[in-house]
Amino acid sequence: MRILILGGDGYLGWPTALRFSARGHEVSVVDDFSRRRWHTEAGTDSLTPIADLDERIAAWRELGGGEIRSYPGSVQDGDFLEAVVAETQPEAVVHYGQQASAPYSMASRQQAVETQHANVIGNLNLLFAIRDHVPDCHLVKLGTMGEYGQPEIDIEEGYIEIHHKGRSDVLPYPKLPASLYHCAKVHDSTNIHFACRTWGLRATDLNQGVVYGIETDETARDERLITRFDYDEIFGTVLNRFCLQTVIGHPLTVYGAGTQTRGFLNIRDTLACVELATLNPAEGGEFRVFNQFTEQFSVIELAELVKQAGEHLGYPVEIQHCDNPRVEKEEHYYNAVHTKLLDLGLEPTLLGEELVESMIHTIERHKSNAIEAHIDPRTRWNPAKSPAGRP
Amino acid sequence: MRILILGGDGYLGWPTALRFSARGHEVSVVDDFSRRRWHTEAGTDSLTPIADLDERIAAWRELGGGEIRSYPGSVQDGDFLEAVVAETQPEAVVHYGQQASAPYSMASRQQAVETQHANVIGNLNLLFAIRDHVPDCHLVKLGTMGEYGQPEIDIEEGYIEIHHKGRSDVLPYPKLPASLYHCAKVHDSTNIHFACRTWGLRATDLNQGVVYGIETDETARDERLITRFDYDEIFGTVLNRFCLQTVIGHPLTVYGAGTQTRGFLNIRDTLACVELATLNPAEGGEFRVFNQFTEQFSVIELAELVKQAGEHLGYPVEIQHCDNPRVEKEEHYYNAVHTKLLDLGLEPTLLGEELVESMIHTIERHKSNAIEAHIDPRTRWNPAKSPAGRP
Lengths: 391, 391
What we know:
Two copies of one chain form a homodimer. Chain A has helices spanning 13-22, 34-42, 53-62, 78-88, 102-106, 109-133, 180-199, 238-248, 267-279, 299-312, 340-343, 353-366, and strands at residues 2-6, 26-31, 68-72, 92-95, 138-144, 159-164, 167-172, 202-208, 210-212, 252-255, 261-266, 287-292, 295-298, 319-322. Chain A is an alpha/beta fold. In chain A, the strands form four sheets. In chain A, strands 3-2-1-4-5-8-12 form a seven-stranded parallel sheet, with helices on both faces. In chain A, helix 4 runs parallel beside helix 6 (109-133) and helix 6 (109-133) packs parallel to helix 7 (180-199). The first copy, chain A, is globular. Chains A and B meet through helix 6, strand 6, strand 7 and helix 7 of A and helix 6, strand 6, strand 7 and helix 7 of B.
């Protein structure tokens, strides 16, 4: 298949490009390197030393992995994106090319506007490019479980059958997004659903949980193929941050009580899910939604798992409850359906102490790169709410 | 009250400014005149000759109507909007300052992007300005009934109680927006709801039906105070267009079978509703949603009403079914709740032949301004779908 990956230089985009290339697909990637720029501006960086996109591609070619075509540029530039789509004629577009940090979107008006502009306009440009050049192409869009928020009822996969006043309909599942970044993902879902209904496009929204892990089969083949690994308060996700904190002797920063529950998945399962969605495309006119995670955990459960694994490896691990910088329920009902990817054949890589230990070992190789100054949470969801004075 | 009106030069914004000023409120208006610019670019214009904003404001002052402060500029300019909010310290902001045409948003990628950028980013700028300068201010936001689309169940006012797998919750009503413009209004609702939940802002989303009418008590006082009246395929709404078509001898352009049903209201009721919402603000942290219309009609019912009124005035009126340029259901269930504004005391101005005749008489005074070239529908929701060959 001809596959175009937007955001193909990123944490998930690059391993996805390698995966499809390894399977013999014709892969092109678009990236404007904004993720690298945001880190430079903030004084943070990936723990793993990542090669430039050209070098990564050259290394992959050298290892016999096949040719990956690179198109440097921004999805926000509609003319550029249209030209790339017209030239590459993709059968599937995997769209990771977005600002993907919730704290980044909450830090200031400017960063909120940047996030919603980059994500919503980029995605809108893509919908028009597909409509006008490759209307049968399957859009595989990365959404997030955070679109749903914390409702009091079970979270279904994108739609819910509602019985109301003697009538019924299957309608988009109501959303309570958790940040302005998550709002932007809801906006994208709304626009894509409209494009499917109106133009007959085909799309799959992958409402992904929180991803953890560093290595995939392909990135492990050569140090030059390694993907980025973030652990700072802006771009780091919770389990990755806990593992890094263990190695550098920093307390595990649990926000609030840590009883907040979410869906999680291994980076290897992200690739498996994206591959399953791509190889089993939605029908023309269909807006398909999958909840892409494998297990639910509370934050404190993850902290305790990492503490146990770390201590078995000889690290002294302290769990520190920070004043929660987010506005979210800490004690809440959470039960999210996630059967559609299993039905397509997903075999989950479940989280256990062994997996945490293997992440810790990979982190140990790069621990000299760690920048400790940007780990503790500083970006508050509601700046008017003063910290409650937790340690 | 100190009231800031965004889009205060528009069809509804200007009469709203006059209404509040006439009631003794301290009114400021923001507008960047983009609506006038879009008409100039398209070669269309308001049927009614509208004075410049400065002239309108001077005429109102001359008539003893009080001082209206004007801030020319764009809500898309976050620094400008923040400065206006900081200076005027509004107790209520009425936000009409958006690209408000569905066909405009569907005409091209550029116009879709312009619409979503102008509307979403402008509204996001406003949320931050309120949060940082007047957190107790009540945001009165113009939404649209078109956010809901055409579900098979009754449309509730913003929220719906869902019973699911033995549990229940009251959640945002699912949306099936009818165009990329309507999608942008859904995005705004999502962002405002988030701001209320997270920052404690107070807001009312007025999901307005299709507005008809020309005159309000204030605009009728002097020709210089008249508001704009659009009838072209881009900015004209259906009943206004039918009345104009009657006067100039153009067939009434019914899209498809005309069995599409929507909620409608008189421009006088728009002002009454906005006033009721403003004088009865939402609670802090509350995102309140009102369905703002007074009656449901199908398009063909409206055409027949106008035909009958026109014929009583001596006009020969032909109803023409055009190939529907929109992607929408023509035969469909439609029952939308709209009791919250009635509960606050709204006394609807109902539509009847007398009201249509009065609109026709006002149009007659300005009929020499009519531009016939841009009345027939040309903007197709799905350009790939060829016209089915209706007359």
